[in-house]
Automatic annotation (TrEMBL):
InterPro entries reported for this sequence: AB_hydrolase_fold, RBBP9/YdeN
Lineage: Bacteria, Pseudomonadati, Pseudomonadota, Alphaproteobacteria, Hyphomicrobiales
Protein name listed in UniProt: Serine hydrolase family protein
A Pfam family annotated for this UniProt entry: Ser_hydrolase
Gene Ontology MF terms in the entry: hydrolase activity
């Protein structure tokens, strides 16, 4: 599948996402990509976020490919049974955060985002994980990929794969995403 044939919905994670983050750069480079506006970024409510995602997918006029980072990956896992079955073609997941871990984010217990669903995704998925992500142990990310039926990619020691870890443009990620899109055929 060509990138231009889909609506690319980008889902950021918990808290503020720096403007230099690769997701915003991807939005600028791809005319058919948009970052989903999610409310209460420091106190997210699963139902509100899930309903926002479902409404966005329902409004799509082309097949949808979801791109999640951190809590955005976990949101996708929680939403799979609510998403229109004929609209989502795939999910590209980057650096999922482990909300089952105690005190992952001081001051927010993870709310309804835990436990993390382990049901297989009903569409193709690919997960990129870092060996030194402070928000998710590598083995946990690998286990999530296996449970979700996702392809798995070792990003090496890349931190949380965000602007703070030096991944503003993240050209390797764009190349990996392009290969994933090609596999969606």
């Amino acid at each position: 599948m060509k990138i231009s044939e889909a609506e690319i919905v980008l889902l950021t994670g918990y808290g503020d996402t720096a403007k230099g983050h690769w997701m915003f750069r991807w939005q600028e480079k791809m005319a058919n990509a948009s970052v989903l506006e999610l409310k209460n970024r420091f106190h997210p409510e699963l139902k509100v976020w899930r309903d926002t995602l479902v409404a966005r997918v329902e409004d799509a006029t082309k097949p949808v490919v979801l791109v999640g980072h951190s809590l955005g990956c976990i949101l996708i896992a929680h939403a799979i049974h609510n998403l229109p079955k004929d609209k989502v073609r795939g999910a590209f997941l980057v650096a999922p955060s482990d909300w089952d871990r105690e005190n992952l984010v001081p001051g927010f217990d993870g709310g309804a985002f835990k436990p993390i669903p382990r049901a297989p995704f009903p569409f193709k998925a690919h997960l990129v994980a870092s060996r030194n992500d402070p928000y998710c142990d590598y083995a946990v990310a690998e286990g999530l990929a296996k449970a979700w039926g996702a392809g798995f990619q070792d990003a090496g020691e890349a931190g949380h794969i965000n602007a703070e870890s030096g991944h503003g443009p993240w050209p390797e990620g764009m190349m990996s995403f392009a290969l994933f899109m090609k596999r969606l055929g």
